[in-house]
Amino acid sequence: MGIVEASCREPAQARAWPSKDQRADTHPTAMASRATPGELQEEATCSLTIACGHNFCRACLTGHCEERGAGGLTCPQCRAPFQKGQFKPNTQLNNIVQKLRQLGPGQGEGLCEGHQKRLKLFYEDYGAAVCLVCEKSRDHKSHRVVPMEEAAAQEDQAHVKMLREEREKLLGWKATGEEKSQEYLKQTRAAWQKIVAEFQQQRHFLEEQERLLLAQLEQLDEMIVKTWTDTVTKLSEQISRLSERIGELEGKCQKPVSEFLQDIRSTLSRCEERQAQQPEEMAPELEEQVRGFSQKVIVLSETLREFKGTWGGWRRGK
């Protein structure tokens, strides 16, 4: 047997048709604003919908039909005509009440679980909402109670204040971070300019030193070549003269012995006068310059090696 049939077995005379004011009070909207889930259940399970779409309880609608008797039936609310028997249970409204009941007492409509009264007060000590009956009990007389609206406003203000403080804190961190970032960027840009200027200056210095050293080395090369050329020229002259004497003596050896012996002494005398002379060694100052350049190359290599090691350590973060 359905819920509507089971809850509507009361006689038709059980309830009189309500007055206009009473009908306004028993309208589903008005009832839902004040009624408990149990009262809503009672009204919804007896709620019938007529042809015009308005809803009334079974007892009231049955009584209205009996009062009219054989006369025409009209909707008490909009005066639209309808015929007896042209109404059906409002199952949709009943389903809504069922869902409200599933929420539990005090959850769907903000009711006190113990007294089924609206929660109008707030205990600040416990952070709990109570009804007027709870407020008058002995257990809560010493507690500080404020209206729900005031408590909500206080909570809202407290949360807004807290959030504003958090926002100010974040804004302060942001400003501090931005200030530090700008200072760091200023330092890095200054370091960038300094590095560019230093490397440019060092490049100019190294290029100038390179040109100077190469020019000096080229001059030293020319001096060495000139000294060796002079030495080779002198040695070549001596070699040429000695070759002439050798040829002269070999020619005389081909002559008769008597003729050879007659002028041998003069020939040997000329040979002794033209003995080979050892060339002069390289000038001491030239040797000193060569040794000086060799030492400069060693110092330059060591300096560059040390610089590479230091710079490599910086790049690796050491």
Automatic annotation (TrEMBL):
The entry's keywords: Coiled coil, Metal-binding, Zinc, Zinc-finger
Database matches in InterPro entries: TRIM/RBCC (IPR050143), Znf_B-box (IPR000315), Znf_C3HC4_RING-type (IPR018957), Znf_RING (IPR001841), Znf_RING/FYVE/PHD (IPR013083), Znf_RING_CS (IPR017907)
Protein name, per record: Uncharacterized protein
Pfam families named among the record's database cross-references: zf-C3HC4 (PF00097)
SMART domains found in the cross-reference section: BBOX
A GO molecular function held by the record: zinc ion binding
Gene3D superfamilies xref list: Classic Zinc Finger (3.30.160.60), Zinc/RING finger domain, C3HC4 (zinc finger) (3.30.40.10)
Lineage, uppermost ranks: Eukaryota, Metazoa, Chordata, Craniata, Vertebrata
This protein's record includes keyword Zinc-finger: yes
Occurrences of domain B box-type (ranges): 107-148
UniProt family annotation: Belongs to the TRIM/RBCC family.
Residue ranges that the Swiss-Prot or TrEMBL entry lists as coiled coil: 203-252
UniProt keyword annotation of Calcium present: no
Region (Disordered): 1-36
All copies of domain RING-type, residue ranges: 52-79
